[in-house]
From TrEMBL:
Matches recorded under PANTHER family: THERMOSPERMINE SYNTHASE ACAULIS5
Keywords in alphabetical order: Membrane, Polyamine biosynthesis, Transmembrane, Transmembrane helix
This protein's name: Integral membrane protein-like protein
Transmembrane segments: 36-57, 69-86, 98-117, 138-158, 170-188, 216-234, 246-265, 272-289, 295-317, 329-349, 355-374, 381-398
InterPro entries on file: SAM-dependent_MTases_sf
GO BP: any one term: polyamine biosynthetic process
Length: 670
């Protein structure tokens, strides 16, 4: 019995520990987009489905001892695929089709071990039920979810802050070898446990009637709805609040906690209490979608609501679980639902929708399934009341969905997120057009002829980048590099004879900058757009000899981590003239990126100054912005007086420089 528990616990821990490891490893290859995590979850859910299908077929088609042999052979073969390290050659083609590239990279790096790990929970339960016929195996499922949650919670606290990602992968691979040994031990115990008496018990169980397909579809629907809401809430948090890995872990931990509570002991799912709480959870999410909440309140409301949704879905699943004979079918249906929900949010929605409609859809499905499971138990009058309430809630969700796109000039969406263009009326200065990535302003322009060539927002003349570019205005023809296009505001600083080479990963941003804004068309400089991840493009190019290189590539509210590592900075400096300036935009509501840049500058022997602009309340052209200017120490003396007075960044004691293999977001939370 202990052998089975150890095997299940270790497999589940490794199953979920590898998810953030491999996701962090490949995140830089895909522009640091929050969609990487969503697509990773789709892959992991699809692998889980394949694993559960394998267990179901194995359980239905092979005798107990043949099951042991087949599975043990596959376990030993999987050792040949170690270590779980992504092949860096995929970086070259990653941007061509990012969604499918993520899936292929994951399959080649971790596909076989993950598949074998995913089979362990239901397979060990089936073997456990065979070896200990008098005991119920479902509590092993709660144990596996407990291990999964511990793996997720330990990663950002105990693993990520202390170990480079490749060391994490090698340590995980060593632990996988231990898992294989534990699983072989459980297989041996199961082999010995197959006796004539237990075979007769198993034969008697064969007569247990198969659950009807209507019940199977309900299992799929409940699992799918919980999966949709998990990914939709995660996307809302990482895209519109802060695209940081901590918010990958929080919703998934809540999801797993509901599994633990429901499967460990059904009494934890107090049906009347949670069904009463369900409408309040719907109202809480409605309030979140209205906007205007402080971040802690927003995160708390979404987390509590997700917990209620998952408890209802998973609690109803446990209420309908079949006899042990059909255990593998039950888990197969759960995995089908999870994979369908993940594929809907991670693959279908970005390709079909232009806004985040999957969250309202998931909420309506949850309400509809709650009505379905209660339908037979309700009196006719109550049925009509529930139906009217469901239709009213559907109408409200339709209103929310319309608000996602209403009053916007253009709404676009792809792998890299949602873009919206809005025209706002600014009294006295006319129409101001802005572009939003999620809820974050990524640039704006006044449309009136007298103002449209004025740099605005984070790029106005008082900002750090504005002052830096003006300080170069006395120089002959300049060559400027820019990572991140936005609306193209920095093109306003271009003069005749200058060249501005602008790197942008999202072709939809290029389309909006050209067709909805005039900064690029109005610029006197020669504009050279380069489509692709800025860092990867620079790595492939010969030295550009930039007078100034601006790093202004944001995903939501944060700069992707791979653009701030020591290796990235070394690459930027290779493209600068000896007296060139490296300008890094670090404005952020949630993360303090100063120590990251300071540590890199110190390691590279550069001086970094910070320009933190808080404009006057009546300033129509400037927004609060924080820019860091990095240069050789002797270059500081030739800067204008205003920049000479700027604060010099000093490394934070004990702060470890970020590299491609190591970064720690916990230490820079505001």
């Amino acid at each position: 019995m202990i052998s089975f528990a150890i095997t299940v616990f270790l497999s589940a821990f490794l199953l979920f520990q590898v998810q953030p490891i491999i996701a962090k490893m490949i995140l830089p290859w895909f522009g640091g987009s929050s969609s990487v995590w969503s697509v990773c979850l789709v892959f992991f859910q699809a692998e889980l489905l394949l694993g559960y299908l394998y267990v179901h077929l194995l359980h239905e088609s092979f005798s107990p001892r043949r099951q042991n042999i087949v599975h043990c052979v596959l376990l030993l073969l999987s050792l040949a695929t170690l270590p779980v390290v992504a092949d860096p050659t995929w970086r070259e083609t990653a941007a061509e089709n990012p969604t499918w590239s993520v899936l292929v990279v994951l399959a080649s790096a971790v596909g076989m071990p993950y598949l074998l790990l995913s089979t362990t929970g239901p397979l060990m339960q089936a073997w456990y039920a065979r070896s200990f016929a008098s005991l119920m195996p479902y509590r092993l499922y709660a144990l596996s979810n407990l291990a999964s949650m511990l793996a997720l919670l330990s990663y950002p606290v105990l693993v990520e802050p202390y170990f480079p990602v490749h060391e994490q992968a090698w340590a995980w691979s060593a632990a996988y070898v231990l898992f294989v040994l534990a699983c072989l031990g459980s297989a041996w115990q199961s082999w010995q446990g197959v006796s004539g008496e237990r075979e007769r018990v198993a034969s008697a169980a064969e007569s247990t009637p198969r659950p009807p397909w209507r019940e199977c579809l309900l299992w799929v629907g409940l699992a799918m709805t919980a999966s949709i809401l998990l990914l939709a809430v995660t996307r809302h948090l990482t895209q519109d609040v802060a695209p940081v890995p901590f918010l990958w872990v929080l919703p998934l931990s809540i999801y797993l906690l509901s599994f633990i509570l429901c499967f460990d002991a059904p009494r934890y799912y107090s049906r009347p209490g949670f069904l009463v709480a369900l409408p309040f959870a719907f109202l809480a999410v409605d309030r979140v979608l209205d906007g205007g909440l402080a971040v802690p309140i927003l995160v708390a409301l979404l987390s509590l609501s997700l917990f209620v949704f998952c408890m209802v879905c998973h609690g109803e699943l446990v209420r309908r679980r079949p006899p042990v004979r059909h255990l593998t079918l039950f888990y197969l249906m759960l995995s089908i639902g999870g994979a369908l929900g993940g594929s809907f949010v991670g693959l279908l929605a970005p390709a079909v929708f232009n806004a985040y409609f999957e969250l309202p859809i998931g909420l309506f499905l949850c309400a509809a399934l709650a009505a379905i499971v209660l339908w037979r138990e309700l009196r006719p009058a109550w049925r009509w009341l529930v139906l009217v309430a469901l239709l009213a809630y559907g109408y409200r969700l339709a209103e929310i969905s319309v608000d996602y796109v209403a009053d916007y000039r253009r709404v676009l969406r792809n792998f890299y997120g949602q873009l919206r263009v809005a025209d706002l009326n600014d009294d006295g200065l006319g129409i101001k057009r802005a572009i939003y990535h999620g809820r974050v302003n990524h640039g704006e322009q006044f449309l009136a002829a007298e103002y449209r060539r004025r740099p605005t927002a984070y790029y106005c003349e008082k900002s750090g980048i504005g002052q830096a570019l003006r300080s170069l205005s006395g120089e002959p023809a300049l060559k400027i590099g820019i990572l991140g296009l936005g609306t193209g505001t920095l093109a306003t600083y271009g003069r005749r004879g200058d060249e501005m080479r602008i790197y942008e990963i999202n072709e939809q941003v290029v389309d909006l900058a050209r067709n909805d804004f005039t900064y690029l068309a109005d610029s006197a400089a020669r504009i050279v757009p380069v489509l692709g991840d800025g860092r990867l493009m620079l790595e492939r190019e010969p030295a550009q000899d930039f007078d100034l290189l601006a790093i202004d590539a944001f995903s939501g509210d944060s700069i992707p981590t791979h653009l701030l590592t020591l290796e990235a900075m070394q690459g930027y400096l290779r493209h600068l003239k000896s007296d060139g300036l490296l300008a890094i935009h670090i404005t952020n509501r949630y993360l303090d990126l100063r120590p990251v840049v300071a540590a890199a500058a110190d390691r590279l022997g550069r001086t970094a100054i910070i320009v933190d602009l808080t404009p006057d309340a009546d300033d129509r052209f400037c927004r609060h912005s924080v820019w860091v200017l990095m240069m050789r120490p002797e270059r500081l003396e030739s800067l204008p007086e205003d920049l000479k007075k700027a604060e010099v960044l000093v490394p934070r004691p004990g702060f470890t420089v970020w590299t491609d293999a190591f970064s720690n977001l916990l230490k820079i939370l505001k």
